[in-house]
# Entry
Amino acid sequence: MSWSKMTARSRTVAWAGRSALAVLGGVSFPTPTHGDEGVHPGKPTTFAVVGHTSALTEDGLRLSKFLDDVNTHMTDAVFILGDAALYDASVVATYREHLDAPVYFAPGNHDLEGNRITRTQKNLGYLQTTVELPCCSFVLINSSDGAAQIRDFLDESLSAADPDTPTILMSHFRVWDDTLLSPGPFQHDKSYRFSDLYDAIDGRFDYLFTGNSKRQYMSDIAREPGFGKQNVNNIYWAGMVGSMVAYSVGMGDGDPRAGYVTVHVAGFDRFEVRPHHVTWTNEDIVGEHLIVPDTSGEATRAPSDLRKWATKRLGRKHALAIGFLLGAAGLIATRRLATRLRRVRPR
# Structure
């Protein structure tokens, strides 16, 4: 049973019972199957979640500064969730050697393009894996794979998960988000709908973390004239699917700042997400020269803008026809309202 499905009384009993065993009986609980250096069962655990660091890998100084910042939080583990140049052996070596904590990976679509998949698997030693820490059980999936393959791995992994701790799904794609879909596996976006995985996830996971934030909803500094949806201050966002809390983390282009989160688990039901960022400028406010007003969106338009948009999208004749019909409908509605008001006017 996932932790979120347990009652408050059950959680209290589980916590008290486990603590009593540890104190009175001298029982030691299983150590992690991955990365047990510096992690001691029973102590509060902190882990970092990072996504989309590929832009930083093009600048060694920025990557080093970013990893140094992650190290300041003295985490017990770091999870890098894809689009992180994992096909480059030297970059993977930098992550593992520079970070003070054990580091684990979930590959992204850019890590798996063409023959990169072979190199990424060789560099990591896996494309999907599980991690056990004292606080939680983690399942890291290859979200570029097909739904059937992902379901098989989930069934296999969850059979070995600790039922007394929260279970966390880690991936690159937001598996719950069907905004963009590709026609097949190992393409730019995921190839399945969330409904294809939901019954394999619901009630079995408490939290979802992904590393492909921003791309469908906002951009970075001005790249497209008139796009206007920059939000470089965004570090992560959260949503809920059923009883599961879903976090989307990722830095986009990582410029003018690069973000990540740390997650502190002080108890079975004490789960705190904290945002952090490293900036490459001395300005807290994004400079005006980096922001482009939204001139192509379809929301909150002045009437003149709406006419221009309709003409562009529908053609002049269709736009005029629709405008005439809307005007006529408005005139008829106004006359009917006036007639009703005259009928109910007191004499």
User: Anything to note?
Assistant: The chain is about 30% helix and 20% strand. The two ends are 72 Å apart (CA to CA). Helices lie at 8-24, 60-71, 89-98, 116-124, 147-158, 198-201, 303-314, 316-344. Residues 109 and 187 are 7 Å apart (CA to CA).
